[in-house]
Design a protein that fits this description.
The complex is a heterodimer. Chain A contains eight helices and no strands. By secondary structure, chain A is mostly helical. In chain A, α4 (89-120) packs antiparallel against α5. Chain A is globular, with a radius of gyration of 22 Å. The chains are: A mainly alpha, B mainly alpha.
Chain lengths: 250, 43
């Protein structure tokens, strides 16, 4: 084996899910994160009412948007799997990867919201409509991931989790419009109503862009890990069948 | 008090993401060592 071939094989194991695209995306994400932290923590001014607490919103709002996006991608991928014309386990793995990353962002939303609530309301948690529906959405997608972990073939997993994903996504409008429908303690939309401007709005914008890049990078890698897990399952079955055949022969 | 909560938020967020990324890449390396190259068509 030549030295070049050995180096390439070693690089593959070192970066088994990496490609030129993911590396470029990863570098862009890291640079963006640097910008985001610089603007979010140092360059943007304090808010007149919330003081430095407004800086938590630069994490909280983008992570909530990204969680919505991730769950919508999960639903679209699940629908693509269920459609006979586009049925492929690649869609199922994309759905699973997106849901996992969505759960991460939803967890960040709840955590940062809780810390922001402690500063603004004096308590970490209130059972108002936005907070409660968000927690419900988080638990629903934890359930979705649990359903994906149940036994059966890859296609059985894909079919049942696709149905759960298509039902779960219906909660998103409930969460989003809860601040309009039930007048909760949670504030209403700040951006659409022009309450943020200048460097504050720019910091939030950077947060959305960077979290979106991070989401794409995470999903690409995670989907490839899921593909390798499925392949290992398949090989495991092949090995077991081969062993049984050998036992039957002797 | 605000500064303390802001710092906790940023550390928890990026720490959580970092832990997830590290676990994911480690899992990927373990799987790649057990699978033939044809099971990684993207490489």
């Amino acid at each position: 084996m030549s030295a070049t071939h050995t180096d390439t094989a070693a690089a593959v194991v070192r970066r088994p899910t990496g490609t030129r695209v993911t590396r470029a995306l990863g570098i862009a994400t890291l640079i963006g994160l640097g910008w985001f932290v610089t603007f979010g923590l140092f360059l943007s001014p304090d808010d007149a009412v919330q003081l430095a607490g407004v800086r938590i919103l630069y994490l909280h709002v983008p992570s909530a948007w990204l969680a919505y996006l991730a769950f919508i991608v999960t639903a679209i991928s699940s629908a693509a799997y269920l459609s006979k014309r586009t049925r492929s386990l690649t869609w199922d793995r994309l759905a699973g990867a997106s849901a996992e990353v969505g759960v991460l962002f939803m967890g960040i939303t709840l955590l940062t919201g809780s810390l922001w609530g402690r500063m603004s309301w004096g308590v970490y948690w209130v059972w108002d409509s936005r907070v409660t529906t968000t927690a419900f959405l988080f638990v629903t997608y934890l359930g979705y991931l649990a359903v994906r972990g149940l036994g059966g073939s890859h296609h059985q997993r894909a079919r049942r989790s696709a149905v759960v994903a298509l039902l779960s996504v219906l909660e998103i409008p409930l969460v989003h419009f809860s601040v309009e429908w039930w007048r909760p303690l949670h504030q209403q939309e700040s951006i659409a109503k022009g309450k943020l401007e200048g460097l504050m709005l720019f910091s939030l914008f950077i947060g959305v862009v960077v979290f979106t890049l991070l989401y794409v990078w995470l999903v690409m890698h995670r989907q490839r890990v899921l593909a390798m897990e499925d392949a290992l399952d398949d090989h495991g079955l092949e090995f077991a069948i081969a062993e049984r055949r050998e036992e039957a022969l002797f | 008090m605000e500064t303390r909560f802001v710092i906790i938020s940023y550390i928890a967020t990026f720490g959580g993401i970092g832990v997830l990324v590290a676990a994911m890449l480690r899992r990927a390396r373990v799987l790649a060592q057990r699978l033939p190259p044809e099971d990684r068509p993207w490489t």
